[in-house]
Design a protein that fits this description.
single chain
Length: about 350
């Protein structure tokens, strides 16, 4: 009796690359806000480890720190899931991944560099005729005058090179010139970088997740910020407190619903089509999330910024997770699709 040869199937290895910021770090970059938002990866690493192990992959976990990237020397994988979204490290990591000739998730160094720079992003929105609020750029040493106003009040002022809603709260919006001057002075002192002043668009706060596959690119159902009960903020924004400050009632109240309530079908389809255009205008890849405002008075939408390496969160209150579910997918499906984009 002849013995049939058993063909061995190569078991692929996925590396989960994530960042950790030691509490003892003395780098001036790490304010309390950065320390909070830059260390939110533990849960998603464990979630992905379980997911990929269940699906028959080997899993390698690699941790990097601001002053210690030595873990990358251990990298031996068929695919790298890049979970590094610390603004301090993600640029350097993206540059390194681009040189390693190993498939990895998310956008390239150039695209992440663009999405981290609100000024560059705004200019690309304008270049590609994507609607965005009127704005001005305020240099760190600019004298504050009325010429720095982008238009009519209210006006929102943001740090130009931050992420994760750092520097954006209900106190970031001015309704008079005197408030504007004080706001700019305070934000220059706190954030020590150029500022972006925008006309504030009253109305809905929306987020759109775009998923790229080898055959089609989807703008998933739009997610809209919502609040439970009477606990909400004055301006209906998704700021730092709503996103990160767990001890405040507004954090527990804030969540996203998908699809939005009372959004006309033509508006919904227009926003989603523009989001796919924005995805390619900014050179993004695999997946991304866009922040928008929608003026119910004007029936017009405005792009605020892009998130090239948006973080994952299984919590159903998260905008991306809400959109994935509304699309008829699970977060498992979404994550596995990103892997299939490269290695299947």
């Amino acid at each position: 009796m002849k013995h049939r040869k058993i063909k061995r199937v190569h078991k692929r290895t996925i590396a989960l690359l994530y960042h950790y910021v030691p509490k003892t770090i003395t780098d001036e970059y790490f304010s309390k806000e950065h320390a909070l938002v830059d260390n939110q990866t533990d849960e998603i690493v464990q979630y992905m480890k379980r997911l990929f192990a269940r699906r028959g992959y080997n899993v390698q976990i690699i941790k990097v720190e601001p002053d210690d990237l030595s873990g990358l020397k251990q990298l031996k994988a068929d695919f790298v899931f890049n979970l590094v979204d610390s603004k301090k490290m993600e640029m350097e990591i993206a540059r390194i991944l681009g040189r390693l000739h190993i498939p990895y998730s998310g956008s390239s160094f150039a695209a992440i560099q663009t999405s981290n720079n609100k000024l560059r992003t705004k200019k690309l929105f304008e270049k590609h005729a994507l609607p965005t609020p009127k704005y001005t750029i305020i240099g760190l040493h600019d004298r504050i005058t009325r010429r720095l106003l982008p238009g009519k009040f209210p006006v929102i002022v943001k740090p130009a090179f931050e992420h994760c809603s750092i520097g954006i709260t209900s106190k970031s919006i001015a309704t008079t010139y005197e408030q504007f001057k004080k706001l700019v002075q305070r934000m220059k002192k706190v954030h020590r970088q150029a500022l972006l002043a925008e006309e504030f668009i009253s109305g809905k706060e929306l987020q759109v997740t775009v998923l790229e596959t080898p055959t089609k690119t989807f703008a998933l159902p739009i997610a809209e910020i919502a609040f439970r009960g009477q606990v909400k903020n004055k301006w209906n924004i998704y700021g730092f407190d709503e996103k990160w400050t767990k001890n405040l009632p507004v954090y527990s109240s804030c969540h996203f619903v998908a699809p939005p309530k009372q959004l006309r079908g033509d508006v919904d389809s227009g926003i989603r089509k523009d989001s796919i255009r924005a995805f390619y205008a900014l050179g993004l890849r695999d997946y991304a999330r866009f922040d928008l405002r929608y003026s119910t008075k004007e029936s017009r939408w405005y792009f605020l910024e892009a998130n090239a390496n948006a973080g994952f969160d299984p919590d159903p209150r998260d905008a991306m997770t809400a959109s994935i579910r509304a699309h008829g997918m699970t977060l498992d499906d979404f994550v596995l699709q990103i892997v299939r984009n490269s290695i299947h």
